[in-house]
Amino acid sequence: MPSKPILRTCWSAAATLLEFTGESAAADRINGQRIAERWCAECHVVASGQQQGSDKVPTFAQIGGSKHFDEASLAAFLMAPYHSRMPNLSLTRSEISDLIAYIRSHGR
Ligand code: HEC
């Protein structure tokens, strides 16, 4: 039966996605802030107290308030940033879900 392994692959992809959305509910926003200040603040304004990031880089408040980004699209973006000006930071899954929790706490 050649279709079985394919089905299994689909299921595990779906499970990974579900895991992401589930995880982010329990994600650690404070840890997300730490990661953001360390890895993202060089270019992005990550907190309201921060004076300046790079020019023309969206602030986390803008990203968090944007309708273009829900948790799934943020996770997909952070796993593989497609923007050439955005470095691939090789974040772990739990770092990503913490970051998303932090970003999503902005702009609300
Ligand atoms: C070296 C600079 C740099 C660093 C470090 C950086 N970014 Fe970015 N980021 C950018 C630039 C440049 C853009 C694209 C702005 C544009 O042209 O839309 C961007 C865009 C984004 C976007 C929006 C993508 C889109 O399609 O609009 C997200 C989300 C994001 N960054 C998250 C992060 C997170 C989270 C971190 C830290 C883990 C981070 N970035 C670190 C430069 C950076």
Automatic annotation (TrEMBL):
<keyword id="KW-0408">Iron</keyword>
<dbReference type="GO" id="GO:0046872">
    <property type="term" value="F:metal ion binding"/>
</dbReference>
<dbReference type="InterPro" id="IPR009056">
    <property type="entry name" value="Cyt_c-like_dom"/>
</dbReference>
<dbReference type="InterPro" id="IPR036909">
    <property type="entry name" value="Cyt_c-like_dom_sf"/>
</dbReference>
<keyword id="KW-0349">Heme</keyword>
<feature type="domain" description="Cytochrome c">
    <location>
        <begin position="27"/>
        <end position="107"/>
    </location>
</feature>
<keyword id="KW-0614">Plasmid</keyword>
<keyword id="KW-0479">Metal-binding</keyword>
<dbReference type="GO" id="GO:0020037">
    <property type="term" value="F:heme binding"/>
</dbReference>
<protein>
    <submittedName>
        <fullName>Cytochrome c family protein</fullName>
    </submittedName>
</protein>
<dbReference type="GO" id="GO:0009055">
    <property type="term" value="F:electron transfer activity"/>
</dbReference>
<dbReference type="Pfam" id="PF00034">
    <property type="entry name" value="Cytochrom_C"/>
</dbReference>
